[in-house]
């Protein structure tokens, strides 16, 4: 990238930096959401919440179903996006 191009794109630096951070936060959230250990920990917390009366049976079942679907999903997040690089 030439000096002139760099100077012309300089006002966009904060936007590009924000997009970079947002992309990395999204990737980390996706990685954590598909980590079986994290899902199992959330299931354990969900069971505790039900036992303590913090949530009702319907809420428990709905969230449990969602979490179990995460564990059963054949697609795991690998950190790589599909498509052209």
Your description of this structure?
This protein is an all-alpha fold. It has helices at 3-9, 13-34, 36-51, 57-72. Mean pLDDT is 79; it is low at 77-85.
The CA-CA distance between the termini, in Å, is: 19 Å
Give the SSE order as H and E letters: HHHH
Q: What are the low-pLDDT stretches, counting only 5+ consecutive residues below 50?
A: 77-85
Radius of gyration equals 20 Å
Which helices and strands appear, and what pairs or packs with what?
Blueprint: H1 3-9, H2 13-34, H3 36-51, H4 57-72
Give short descriptive properties of this protein.
mainly alpha; 4 helices; 72% helix; 0% strand; disordered C terminus
Task: Write a short abstract of this structure.
With 85 residues, this protein is mainly α.
